[in-house]
Amino acid sequence: MVTIRTSRFAVFSLATLYPALAYAHVGVGETSGFTHGFAHPISGLDHVLAMILVGIFAFQLGGRALWLVPAAFVGMMAVGGALGVAGITVPFVEFGIALSVIVLGAAVAFEVQAPVAIAAGLVGLFAVFHGHAHGAEMPESAGGLAYAGGFMAATALLHIAGIGIGFAVGKIGQRVGSSVVRLIGGLAALVGVGILTGTL
Questions:
Q1: How many domains does the chain have?
Q2: C-alpha–C-alpha distance, residues 60 and 75, integer Å
Q3: Tens digit of each residue's pLDDT (9 = 90 or more) over 118-149
Q4: Residue 36 near residue 142 (C-beta atoms within 8 A)
Q5: Which domain holds residue 91?
Q6: What does the buried/exposed string (b/e) look like for 147-170 if buried means 16 or more CB atoms within 10 Å of the residue's CB?
Q7: 154: CB partners within 8 A, 6+ apart
Q8: Are 72 and 185 in contact (CB under 8 A)?
Q9: Is 128 exposed, middle or buried (0-12, 13-18, 19+ CB in 10 A)?
Q10: CA 79 remoteness from chain centre
């Protein structure tokens, strides 16, 4: 069942990303924008951890959460990105990003079984901070739509990676796999504390 759901999510994600990926082949300016956008989420440890944790969290919840939780993050991140590009201030962006790593890491570590709506709302809130950071740091030479397509594509792929980690570790065995995933969440939360306090 999990294998089928994971496969469907991967196909759905790639289909959703196809229009964005097409921007990478249209023209020099758009290609540059897509490349910059794609690179931004994977250039910071805080972004990478949060987005992978979203995928692991969605995997732990299972069912509709497997695609709804990552979709909520990508959708609300686009909203945050638009606010950043427009120059609209969102308070406590860096704090919100660091907090997202701590909270999502803790949720994974403690295997929190939140209702789908609450889980989607939580990751959606954090996504606004991440998206705003991406949008506010968009290079002037980058095309807005191509740049947005880039960071949304990278984010979705990181979510899929998180789901893949959950699935792969789960293959070890239910008890051992669960312990490993929880350990990953706990370590990520500690890294989040380090980011928040400025020690990392």
A1: 1
A2: 21
A3: 999 999 999 999 999 999 988 877 777 888 89
A4: yes
A5: 2-197
A6: bbbbbbbbbbbbbbebbbbbbebb
A7: 37, 38, 39, 40, 41, 42
A8: no
A9: buried
A10: 14
